[in-house]
Design goal:
single chain, alpha/beta, five-stranded mixed beta sheet
Length: 163
């Protein structure tokens, strides 16, 4: 599968995360093995699981490790709709992921080229190949629409309390 097709799987998972109750921030991730086999697909579950570490990337890496029976995911590719945060970037490096494909960049919290560049930090023992802006507009729009709707619901709830 191409990066574009894999990002489509991640986007589908992001949409599913937002559609759940309680809704999670729409972020999806896919881990692909060295042979191109999809090992894991996950979406954010922080709200659903009440778990601050239940980011899409972490869940996908965990599932990929379960599938392969190894924590070392050398040769694998992680495709994610939003640039990984510092926690996820650290996990990516520790799992020895070879390549990360990112949809939208995150200038406020990104750790794969925006705010930080942990995945390519030369002082660490592993560096990751990075591809960015794969369906970036679509991934960014998904997040913007989610937060716009959330703000609108919050404003309506405040308005209802005043009436």
């Amino acid at each position: 599968m191409t990066d574009d097709e894999l990002m489509g799987l991640a986007i589908d998972e992001a949409r599913a995360a937002a559609a759940r109750e309680p809704a999670d921030v729409p972020i999806g991730a896919v881990v692909v093995g060295p042979d191109g086999t999809v090992l894991a697909i996950a979406g954010n579950r922080r709200e659903a699981d009440e778990d601050p570490t239940a980011h899409a990337e972490i869940l996908a890496l965990r599932r990929a490790a379960e599938v392969t029976g190894r924590w070392n995911l050398a040769g694998s590719t992680l495709v994610v709709t939003l640039e990984p945060c510092t926690m996820c970037a650290g996990a990516i490096v520790l799992a020895r992921v070879e390549r990360v494909v990112v949809g939208a960049m995150d200038p406020k919290a990104g750790a794969a080229g925006s705010l930080y560049d942990l995945v390519r930090e030369p002082r660490l023992n592993h560096r990751v190949e990075l591809t960015t802006d794969v369906r970036g507009q679509e991934c960014g729009d998904l997040l913007r629409d989610f937060f716009r709707a959330r703000r609108k619901r919050a404003a309506e709830a405040r308005s209802d309390q005043i009436d």
